[in-house]
Specification:
This protein is mainly beta. The protein has a domain of 166 residues. It contains 1 helix and 11 strands; from the N terminus they run H-E-E-E-E-E-E-E-E-E-E-E. It has an 11-stranded mixed barrel. Strand 2 and strand 3 form a beta hairpin. 12% of the residues are buried.
Length: 240
């Protein structure tokens, strides 16, 4: 039974890998309908229970990063219940720009307080990550709140688990729900090819489709994940 599961998983991984290879070529043919997101994420360990979240996202209206859509700066404090579960709270600043805007200042500015809970589990080789996030948003001083749920899958290709020198697939779907006005805010569907360089560093390159009401758009995404350990290591000195 386990051999059949692994065989099916390998077959699925190969198909998704092939799809991720040809999808950018199809999207590049419609450059005016494709955006670009350049992203950095970091989880910086402060102690056994606490870590600092750092994040920068440079989002562009067009495929070539020369027409800024948004700049997202996010930070927060994580509390780790275990290796499989942690909670976070923090602040984000998001200035947004209109397409081909001539303004040097953003058309909208958002200040955001956010809280989230992340839980992970594994089935065979696949790692599942459930992210529940609540946001309190002030967009040009107009208050809004939103709930988000994201289910993400990590599938190693050349190893049984994601470790050093592992190629993997990253897939997710995320739903955004408003507390008032339009109930459904947006949906994001994502697929990427990733590489784990070492314990600290990994890279993901893929495509994300964002659907906002009746408007949908593709984004080429490149994400660098760099996690550091800032804990002070205690060196025991030998007794004299």
């Amino acid at each position: 039974m386990s051999n059949n599961k692994n065989s099916c998983l390998n077959s699925l991984s190969k198909k998704l890998f092939f799809l991720l290879l040809i999808l950018p070529a199809l999207i590049f043919a419609q450059q005016d309908k494709t955006g670009n997101w350049l992203m950095y994420f970091g989880m910086n360990k402060l102690s056994d229970k606490f870590s600092l979240h750092t994040e920068i996202q440079y989002r562009n209206h067009t495929l070539i990063p020369n027409n800024t859509e948004q700049l997202l700066l996010r930070t927060g404090l994580n509390f780790h219940f275990s290796d499989r579960a942690f909670a976070s709270a923090g602040y984000a600043y998001i200035p947004s720009y209109m397409y081909e805007s001539e303004q040097k200042t953003p058309e909208t500015e958002e200040h955001r307080i956010w809280q989230q809970f992340i839980l992970t589990n594994k089935i065979a080789r696949v790692k599942f990550e459930h992210r529940y996030r609540i946001e309190q948003r002030w967009v040009n001083r107009d208050y809004r709140s939103r709930f988000r749920y994201r289910l993400m899958l990590f599938i190693p290709i050349n190893n049984k688990k994601i470790e050093e020198k592992t190629v993997f697939l990253g897939l997710y779907d995320e739903v955004f729900i408003n507390s008032k006005e339009t109930f459904f805010d947006r949906n994001r569907l994502y697929g990427a090819l990733g590489y784990q360089f070492n314990k600290k560093t990994s890279l993901q390159v893929g495509m994300m489709h964002q659907q906002v009401n009746r408007f949908g758009k593709w984004y080429l995404q490149m994400a660098l994940i760099f996690n550091t350990d800032l804990r002070k290591k205690i060196v025991k000195r030998p007794k004299v």
